[in-house]
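Aim 2 progress update. The chain analyzed this quarter is reproduced below.
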Amino acid sequence: MIHRRFAALGFAALAVLGILGAADRALAAERVVFMTDWKPEAEQGGFYEAEALGLYAKRGLDVEIRSGGSAANPQQLMAAGAVDMAIGSNSFFALNLVKASAPVVAVMASYQKDPEVLILHPDDPANSIADLKGRPIMISDASIDTMWAWLKAKYGFSDKQIRKYTGNPAPFLVGKTAIQQGYVTSEPLVIEQAGGFKPKLFLLADDGYLTYGGMVLVKQSWVDQKPEIVKAFVEASIEGWRAYLNGDPKPADDLIKKGNPDMTDDILAYARARLNQYGIVDSGDAKTLGIGAMTDARWSAFFKGAVEEGLYPADLDYRKAYTLQFIDQGYDLPGPASSR
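Predicted structure tokens:
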């Protein structure tokens, strides 16, 4: 099954523009409907942990987590008023909303590293991503304007290398020189179980792929009119991520399995271990600013690269894609925030 990352980027810009003109749905201040970008899984574990441990309720919030899927459109549903907050899988989501003049902003980034990897057979002679120039690579259509554009700009890859990736590992398993994209938290396990070997992985984030991941997107009207609600949600989610990665994951895992019967203990344990092993959530700026961190410098660098790749006009006001108002306080780190 194709992973959420490789589904279409997920919203029709013109539809978003039209829907956002409608008045916000009247909601009680403490009620929050939060939609994820895929079915329940460990990659959303921090949010489920916050719910299971009562961290949202502790802050006066009544949070409903709605799971996404291949037919769901979290950003469009948020704009329509059916959803108050939603996950944006990567920084491209937020910039595309700005490009569509949609007043929606990222208020935290669950992932400091994008979990996207290129997957090879263990005996493949390639020692780096650069060694893959000219070789066929299976990627999804949705990745052509994101990670593939970055690979072309940085390593000189060509569209002639593209082969279709549908989420089915069979072509990779039978092709000894095959290369495919995947999530470090999921596809490698599928390959291990089906093929009986551990594949070689190249994590794009470790080679300068600067996109954030798992961002919480909120309508600008909530930031302006309900900042205390947004702040409470962000703080509880950050605490939930810390607990899920470093404490007992069972509360979240039980909720995840209830919502997604395809999830098993071994799948959840594998994904959680990879999140920790590769520093997907807790690395980089999160080490000093806390989980959920984003910075102006990194957004600037990401946008500059995207402009150079021809993905956005240079005059796009990328600063409208995010706000640092609710993060970078380090309140999930040891010691008083005032000492950091």
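The beta strands are 31-35, 62-66, 85-90, 104-111, 116-120, 137-139, 162-164, 179-183, 200-203, 213-219. The domain at 116-207 is CATH 3.40.190.120 (D-Maltodextrin-Binding Protein; domain 2). These observations will guide the mutagenesis experiments scheduled for the next reporting period.
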